[in-house]
């Protein structure tokens, strides 16, 4: 049985969550811009450089630049992950011009004054195919279900189960290798949050916990493969994918979404 030590998992004060919310609003601004700019004929590197300029102008710091986990080939030397079509996570920006119907997932994490926020959204360029709209909406629905389960007294397994239930309802398989995580002073803190799990299991949620929740699905597989670049993760069968993510704070009452975009539809 896994035990959790709250001396290792830092509970943030309301004032610290407020500071993370400042970062979260800025991350939301960047993703709003990415959605606005992603269009037929736009190069992925144009999006990367625009994100860099926004970060520099704000005086923020990228959590991705020089990020060097156990996977990946050398440090990541970009500020945003841009994953296209069958790519879903850690997409390395490169010289690629977007085409009509492309599905683009943009994922970004930054710190402002020492506090991090992380968020992702998936957009469809030009003319959307219905099956692509469906998987994007499924990840958004799963994210809202996860947020709804992020309440004090619930457990990590309740969040995972909420995501998995939405995937199952839509007929999408779920990969559990990569999922949500703790966040705060750094992009990745203690706690792994799989996108499938059993309710009532795992860490008990307490006010002050801050989590990045990120359901991602591939249309017809739960298996993944890595590109030769060592970073970009794709569906193993080439099926299209989608990814949605928000940074969320557990409070005494309702969960607080720190990266909600102003243009984002309110949850039903």
TrEMBL record:
Cofactor info, note text: Binds 2 divalent metal cations per subunit. Has a high-affinity and a low affinity metal-binding site. The true nature of the physiological cofactor is under debate. The enzyme is active with cobalt, zinc, manganese or divalent iron ions. Most likely, methionine aminopeptidases function as mononuclear Fe(2+)-metalloproteases under physiological conditions, and the catalytically relevant metal-binding site has been assigned to the histidine-containing high-affinity site.
Catalyzed reaction equations: Release of N-terminal amino acids, preferentially methionine, from peptides and arylamides
Cofactor(s) needed by this chain: Co(2+); Zn(2+); Mn(2+); Fe(2+)
Binding site for a divalent metal cation 1: 107, 118, 245
The Peptidase M24 domain, residue ranges: 19-252
UniProt keyword Protease present: yes
N-terminal signal peptide: none
Residues annotated for substrate binding in this entry: 90, 188
InterPro entries in UniProt: Creatinase/aminopeptidase-like, Pept_M24, Pept_M24_MAP, Pept_M24A_MAP1
This enzyme's EC code(s): 3.4.11.18
Annotated GO MF terms: aminopeptidase activity
Keywords carried by this UniProt record: Aminopeptidase, Hydrolase, Metal-binding, Protease
Residues given in the record as a divalent metal cation 2 binding sites: 118, 181, 214, 245
Pfam families associated with the record: Peptidase_M24
Function text: Removes the N-terminal methionine from nascent proteins. The N-terminal methionine is often cleaved when the second residue in the primary sequence is small and uncharged (Met-Ala-, Cys, Gly, Pro, Ser, Thr, or Val). Requires deformylation of the N(alpha)-formylated initiator methionine before it can be hydrolyzed.
HAMAP family: MetAP_1
Subunit structure: Monomer.
Family: Belongs to the peptidase M24A family. Methionine aminopeptidase type 1 subfamily.
Protein name, entry field: Methionine aminopeptidase
Organism name: Pseudonocardia ailaonensis
Gene: map_2
């Amino acid at each position: 049985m896994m035990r959790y030590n709250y001396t290792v998992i830092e509970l943030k004060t309301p004032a610290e969550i407020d500071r993370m919310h400042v970062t979260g609003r800025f991350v939301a601004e960047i993703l709003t811009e990415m959605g606005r700019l992603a269009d037929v004929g736009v190069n992925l590197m144009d999006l990367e450089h625009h994100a860099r300029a926004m970060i520099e102008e704000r005086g923020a710091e990228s959590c991705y630049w020089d990020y060097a986990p156990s996977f990946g080939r050398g440090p990541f030397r970009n500020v945003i992950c841009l994953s296209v079509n069958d790519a879903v996570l850690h997409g390395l920006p490169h010289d690629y011009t977007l085409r009509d119907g492309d599905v683009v997932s943009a994922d970004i994490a930054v710190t402002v004054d020492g506090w991090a926020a992380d968020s992702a959204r998936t957009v469809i360029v030009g003319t959307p195919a219905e099956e692509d709209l469906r998987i994007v909406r499924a990840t958004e629905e799963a994210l809202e279900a996860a947020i709804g389960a992020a309440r004090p007294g619930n457990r990590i397994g309740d969040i995972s189960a909420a995501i998995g239930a939405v995937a199952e309802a839509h007929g999408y398989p779920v990969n559990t290798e990569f999922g949500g995580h703790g966040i705060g002073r750094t992009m990745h803190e203690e706690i792994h949050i799989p996108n499938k799990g059993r309710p009532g299991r795992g860490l008990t949620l307490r006010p002050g916990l801050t989590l990045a929740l990120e359901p991602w699905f591939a249309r017809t597989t739960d298996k993944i493969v890595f590109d030769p670049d060592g970073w970009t993760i794709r569906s193993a069968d080439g099926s299209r994918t989608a990814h949605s993510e928000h940074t969320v704070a557990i409070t005494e009452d309702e969960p607080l979404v720190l990266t909600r975009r102003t243009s984002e539809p309110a949850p039903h």
